[in-house]
Amino acid sequence: MAPFYKKTLIVGATSGIGEALVLKLASTGTAVIATGRRRDRLDALVAKAPAGSAAITTIVQDVCDFQAAPAFAAHIAAKHPGLDSVVLNSGIQRAFDFGQPGTVDLAALGTELTTNYLAVVHLVTALLPQLQAQARARDEGADLIFMSATLGLVPSLVRTPNYNASKAALHAFITALRQQQLDVGLERLRVIEVYPPAVQTELHDTVHQPDLVGGDKLGMPLDAFTDELYAKLQTRPTVHVGIGPVESLLAEGGLEDQRQKLFEQQQVHVKKALGHILPGPGNVKTRRTDLLDGSWDHYLASHNISARQIEHDFQTRREAALRQAAEDAERARENGESVDAGFGTPAAAARRRASERIAAVTPSISETPETPGNVELPEAEAEVTGSVSGSGKKLSAQQLKVLDKIKQNKKGKKKKRRALDSDDEDDQTLAALSSMAVPLPGQMENCGSCGKRFTVTPYSRADPSGRLLCTACSKKLDQEDEAARGAKGPKRARGSGQGGAGGRGGVGGGGPVGQRRKTQSRILDGASPVGVKTLLTLCVEHLSRNIDRAEDLGDLPEDLVDRVGRMLSKRRLLSPITLQLLVRPESEEICVYDGAELVTNDYLAILQAMPRLRRLVVYNAIQFKDEALQYLQQRDVRLEALCLYGANLLSETAWKSYLVERGKWLRTLHVCYTDKHVTDDLAAYVRDCAPELQRLKIKGNQAMGPVGVGHLGGLAGLQHLGLDLTASIRADVLVRLLEQVGGSLQTLSLRRADEVDNTVLAALREHCRGLRKLRLTESNRCTDAGFVRLFNGWANEPLRFVDLEGCRFDDPDQPRTNEAGIGLCSDGFRALMAHSGVGLQHVNVCACRHIGREAFEDVFAASKTYPELRHIEVSFCEGVTDQIVCSMFRCCPNLREVVTFGCMRVTGVQVPHGRVVLSDDVPVKPWIETPCLFSAALSRAAGCNVYLKLECLQPSGSFKSRGIGNLMMRASVGDRDTHFYCSSGGNAGLACAVAARVLDAPATIVVPTSTSAYMVDKLRAAGAEVRQRGADWAAADQHLREEVMQEDEEGKNETQKVYVPPFDHPDVWAGAATIVDELSVQLPVGVCPDALICSVGGGGLLCGLMEGIERVYGAQAPTVLAVETAGADSLAASVAAGRLVTLPAITSIATSLGARRVAEQAFAWTQKKQKRTVRDTVNGTVQDTDRETAVVPVVVTDADAVEAIVRLLDDERLLVEPACGAALAPLYAKHGSGVSLLRHHIGDGLTDAAWAVRNVVVVVCGGSNINLSMLEEYRARFGR
């Protein structure tokens, strides 16, 4: 992590926040100067620094020694000139009870005030010059950071009145100090005030505040505060940093935000009022003599005006005028003209023009009354203004009169232009200078509309008068402009033209602006992003957008009213006014999903209007106070369910009173995000006063601990229990709890269960028999063996919901080593799915990183089925891959959502229609998921069930988009530019060209001379450089490797050159294997293919299919028919010869199959034979038999391929090239025995009934080397 400060001085660094901040900054590379009173504490601080930290320099310094402050600042300036930030952190807190004045220690009071305020002022005075110099010298500026307190804004802690006052004084001092820096043009000196909440430091311990017991445990953990402070300082704030409750005061419209705006507005009036009685920058009517002192420079700097630039421009104009006058005089002499001082000569006219230019530029110098007698002009200027030649002759009275008239005319024009009554021309000077004050990006400016101070950026917009606007006002102006222009059709996203993969089904193309954001919002809301919204959803959304027009919701059903309430909360539209639409007197239930805008009276109005209320749920119930609970006690409102989230203002007394009065009717109680009022004592009240309680959730609470959890064991009827407590709950307490209530529990949720170990798992196994939901998160004490013992043979029914997030061994030094088997690992996951897989609907094993890939493969093997599983989260599980996610969809027919954040091996999953994968951003793939359709026409022709995998719909028109695209996508990862080279008979080259366009990279394609002109034109149209060399693919490939790529070596050293083999590469095979992954989820449930048919040229498609088949289908692997045309049958020839054979030439019309030698891996697959289980139906009986399977080479004629093309066009309206027609030929062509070639090879000996139930998938590989003219030529040639 790069440090954002180079060197930081931290005052008060020997304890608490100062010490923690020193260690944090040093660990991130910042050089730190730490000061404190005690040397031993400073030495201990250095010893605490982790290894690899930056240097920590320590200085012993007492902040209360005011006389030493200048020497201390001088030492810092001399030894540490690169200091760019100072943190003033020193402070103490004492309690003073002025209710008993005799107990007040005035000496301690004075010490506190001195430490917290006076010492800070002295240090600022001493250190400020160095920081100001740094701010002027460095583009990044400098930071002066004060550790303030929220009590300085709202003195709510009355026990520390002097502390509150000192921090309030410090706040006022900081505000004025910040403005003074701005007034002198030091915007880059950021004066930052930090408002920490109560933090667990020595400030509250018994040494410093003896009357506080356990005060050092009060507030936010120190590490958490330091991390959040560091993160917010990284954003480079300019005014405030708020953490905790104070954030609401600093937010837009908050108390402190309003005070800051008022302060900025008053500055204008105060400065104007002081301008009449104070000299210098505060006085608008500044005389010429005031312009010459340094205060005027500061005034100009505060308005973003450079005095030096003004002086430079003036000198430039004056020198140009003098040069022009000299040139005119010289020209007049050459022409024989007079150069007399009179106004009628050309030279005099030139000098007069120069004089007028100077007068126009510097009216305050040339026109003020002081100029004639009091201001001594420079010699050059005097020569132009007061004389006309080197003789020193003065202007005549007539000339002075004319000059005075010119000045008066200029003065009158300026008066009219500015419409001012004052004749003082210094006002004109100020106006001219102010008009030049154009703030630069990074400087501060007041918004021309709302007056709010904001940071200027290069994109800041100005209003019609030229004043810059803040971001909010700019958006409003944009909306007004948009409304004025009117609707001109939906805006399109950038790049929405014809980018992307192109062709049919391309992945490119944009959409309406914001469409992707809306889609992601729907996904995160749990809605499917696929398909149109229901009419009901559209109506609810329309109603929420126009809720201000609604007077009543009428007789809408309860569930629909609830949906309206949800949508209003999502849009932040739930207010006291819209709430009235949701309140129904006859209803027994109301759920307020966002009560942030409501006050106590609004809740009282709800209770008054709903006398039959039985269920009350309020989220963000900030203003749900004691008055509301007291009203529930006074009225006969017998709540059965009370769910309050964030009701921090409810006191413990009010809770206890309500439980005593109304607890006996409660069946459900949810109390979430209450910091301190739900205590162990209150848990005892729940046990004693709510004996019929069935559902209890206590979440985000700091005050309840093991004692309170122990009280919950007395709730005999408890069925649903959820705990998420800040305090750690010991394992023995949880074991006793399960012994008491485990028998009745249906839901158990223990979040942040860091103390849960194997004894708790054993208690679950022994006492819980009816659990449906189990959540144990962030446990690092349970072992994998403990989970195995829990799930193996557990008498509990299958779970429906399991959440074991974060149950792992957590050691940052050894993240992958887990010798003890801590957490949920592979065996535990297998046991979980074996026990509950039948009924599981939701599984969350996020961050269980010790579950291996083999475990996922075993759980989601082809033979496993989980019919009820709808959601699974496997984020940050390193073993999850693309294939495993595909297997999840195959094994879980009802799976709707898979979450895979942080799974680095999930790079591009083919997601079935209607399903969702939430994952990190992955590169755009140059291929798409193609459909697999049942073909009735081909099924009749073949006599069995035929499915067509339509790879002809790929962006390039063929299956090559998968393998070629996968190889190119993997090769293009990185920052270097990539140039792709490919040799192809056409389809592989087109796939390379299309993929290169998607990946925004150049491509060079070399094709054989036998490639048709039609195909060459398509390649060039796709954006590739095309060359034709060689009679066949082998010759073209040799030319590419030995000549083309060698030629491009020169001048392209920075470019990565990637050779793209058409078929013989593992990445090409892996891309083709995705066809099988898609088939596993696209085929009807229960259908396992008996055969796959594909064309073979070089063998890339065959290798990919065999890889996928072996991985997905295992023992049920289908037979693969590898079909070639005669004259391009290198695979069949190799199988017949028992070795790889190279054909002498390609004589088939299927040029896309024109590899004279098949890939070695493709030949190897034909030699590999394995046993498979075949399910036959004989006489109505299903029988399993073992047969030997293999790749079966099949050779058809060109005539058979052409006939298949024509019949497919008639049957399915699809036009493919001869290479694809070869794969279709076995379905149409007949064998000598009268049966189809397909049945001859895989159905020989089967009865008609057994053959009719066979399932065959044909990979319609497509191909772009075909059109109607070529088809007619083929038909004429082969007589078909």
UniProtKB/TrEMBL annotation:
Which residue stretches does the UniProt record annotate as biased composition, category Gly residues? 496-513
- According to the entry, every stretch annotated as the Tryptophan synthase beta chain-like PALP domain falls at 929-1230
Catalytic activity of the protein: L-serine = pyruvate + NH4(+)
Q: What superkingdom heads the lineage?
A: Eukaryota
Q: Keywords on this record?
A: Cytoplasm, Gluconeogenesis, Lyase, Pyridoxal phosphate
Q: Which PROSITE patterns match?
A: DEHYDRATASE_SER_THR
Q: In which pathway does it act?
A: Carbohydrate biosynthesis; gluconeogenesis
Subcellular compartments: Cytoplasm
Ranges of Basic residues composition bias in the record? 408-418
**Compositional bias per record (Basic and acidic residues), positions renumbered to this chain:** 325-336
**Which Pfam family name is an example for this entry?**
zf_Tbcl_Rhp7
Specify where the region named Disordered lies, as residue ranges: 325-351, 408-427, 481-523
Q: Which GO terms describe its cellular component?
A: cytoplasm
Q: What EC designation does it have?
A: 4.3.1.17
Main location group:
cytoplasm
**Where would I find the DNA repair protein rhp7 treble clef domain in this sequence?**
441-478
Cofactor field: pyridoxal 5'-phosphate
Provide the GO MF annotations for this entry. L-serine ammonia-lyase activity; pyridoxal phosphate binding; threonine deaminase activity
One GO term of the biological process aspect: isoleucine biosynthetic process
Q: Which InterPro entries match?
A: Leu-rich_rpt_Cys-con_subtyp, LRR_dom_sf, NAD(P)-bd_dom_sf, SDR_fam, Ser/Thr_Dehydratase, Ser/Thr_deHydtase_PyrdxlP-BS, TrpB-like_PALP, TrpB-like_PALP_sf
What family is it from?
Belongs to the serine/threonine dehydratase family.
Q: What is this protein called?
A: L-serine ammonia-lyase
The species this protein belongs to is Grosmannia clavigera (strain kw1407 / UAMH 11150) (Blue stain fungus)
Q: What is the lineage of its organism?
A: Eukaryota, Fungi, Dikarya, Ascomycota, Pezizomycotina
